[in-house]
């Protein structure tokens, strides 16, 4: 098994590509070791000292480390953990996977929220997945769109620029009711 690695815009995060499907549908975010209880793969990766976050996409695993840990030390151990997992035949997530994706929205802004989600799904999320992350809809209130940033996007130094210059401008261009975009923590 050959696992490729790619850097991301977040220097604390690397993207690992095992060359096979990680998740059939959606994404899974594990911002802590406690959150990884239902994922044998995430638990193995969190066993590597210095790992602070794990995120799964369709064909990648994004790993975030703390500032005190060097990639030179962590990367070989993470590669080993991912390889061991896929060779073990264990599932990536046990039982029902927690729903990932956009939050539900009830209210009179339903048509606007549908447009926001459509733009996120077609224009934003594919580009962000290339960088090892995901951005999902969290809410819309009085012209402000609230987005949840996951994987490499969470804590990325350039995420504010991505939100303000990229996503906010895109949404405001297509949806006049949108005045601002803000990040939320899960």
UniProtKB/TrEMBL annotation:
Pfam families registered for this protein in UniProt: Nfu_N, NifU
InterPro entries the record matches: FSCA_dom_sf, Nfu/NifU_N, Nfu/NifU_N_sf, NFU1-like, NIF_FeS_clus_asmbl_NifU_C
Record SMART domains: Nfu_N
Domain of life from the UniProt record: Bacteria
Organism listed in the record: Thioclava sediminum
Lineage: Bacteria, Pseudomonadati, Pseudomonadota, Alphaproteobacteria, Rhodobacterales
Protein known as: NifU family protein
Occurrences of domain Scaffold protein Nfu/NifU N-terminal (ranges): 3-89
Gene3D superfamilies noted in UniProt: Fe-S cluster assembly (FSCA) (3.30.300.130), Scaffold protein Nfu/NifU, N-terminal domain (3.30.1370.70)
Family, per entry: Belongs to the NifU family.
């Amino acid at each position: 098994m050959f696992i490729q690695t790619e850097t991301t815009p977040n220097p604390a995060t690397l993207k690992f590509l095992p060359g096979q499907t990680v998740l059939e549908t959606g994404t899974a975010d594990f911002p802590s070791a406690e959150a990884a209880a239902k994922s044998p793969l995430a638990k193995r990766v969190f066993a590597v000292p210095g790992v602070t976050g794990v995120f799964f996409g369709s064909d990648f695993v994004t790993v975030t480390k703390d500032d005190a840990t060097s990639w030179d030390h962590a990367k070989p151990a993470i590669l080993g953990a991912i390889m061991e997992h896929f060779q073990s035949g264990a599932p990536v997530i046990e039982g029902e996977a927690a729903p990932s994706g956009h939050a539900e929205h009830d209210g009179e802004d339903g048509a606007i929220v549908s447009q926001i989600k459509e733009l996120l799904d077609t224009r934003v999320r594919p580009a962000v997945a290339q960088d090892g992350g995901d951005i999902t809809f969290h809410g819309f209130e009085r012209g402000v769109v609230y987005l949840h940033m996951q994987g490499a996007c969470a804590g990325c130094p350039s995420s504010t620029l991505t939100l303000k210059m990229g996503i906010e401008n895109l949404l405001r261009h297509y949806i006049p009711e949108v005045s601002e975009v803000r990040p939320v923590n899960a």
